[in-house]
Amino acid sequence: MGWTVKIHRKAEKQLASLPRSVAEKLYFLMREIAISGPVRGDWPNYGKLTGDRHHCHLKKGKPTYVAVWTEDRQTITVEVIYAGTHEKAPY
């Protein structure tokens, strides 16, 4: 059984301003989460944050782009809440 992956309205707006290659990586990450779940130890700089939040780097360098998502194990849902540069990420 797979996970349902949603994108928060704010993250959807951020997605529009991302470079194309970074946006494609975010979509790929979302597909992997849907298949294998929210724990993505195979992604660069993956880390579990406080509570039910996770993050990983989509692109290293300057600027570094990250994605942050939350999980809800009861409804098997993951929501991407941030996609953008790491300076403004909600860590």
Task: Please give a handful of descriptors for the protein shown.
single chain; alpha+beta; five-stranded mixed sheet; 91 residues; YaeB-like fold; 5 strands
| Total number of strands | 5
Could you say which overall geometry the principal axes of the C-alpha atoms support?
Answer: globular
Measured by DSSP, the beta-strand proportion falls in 25-35%
CATH homolog superfamily: RelE-like
What count of structural domains?
1
Average of the residue pLDDT scores: 93
What structural category arises from helix and sheet content?
alpha+beta
**Secondary-structure element string:** EHHEEEE
What CATH architecture would you give?
Answer: 2-Layer Sandwich
Low-confidence stretches: none
- What topology, given as strand order, has the largest sheet? 1-5-4-3-2
DSSP helical segment count: 2
What is the CATH T-level topology? YaeB-like fold
Classify the helix fraction into a percent range.
25-40%
CATH class: Alpha Beta
Radius of gyration: 12 Å
From the N-terminal CA to the C-terminal CA, the straight-line distance is 29 Å
The major β-sheet equals: 5 strands, mixed
Textual characterization of the structure:
The chain is α+β, with helices and mostly antiparallel strands. The protein has one domain (4-88): RelE-like (YaeB-like fold, 2-Layer Sandwich), CATH 3.30.2310.20. Helix content is 29%, strand content 33%. The chain is built from 2 helices and 5 strands, in the order βααββββ. A 5-stranded mixed beta sheet has the order 1-5-4-3-2. β4 (65-72) and β5 form a beta hairpin. The chain is globular, with a radius of gyration of 12 Å.
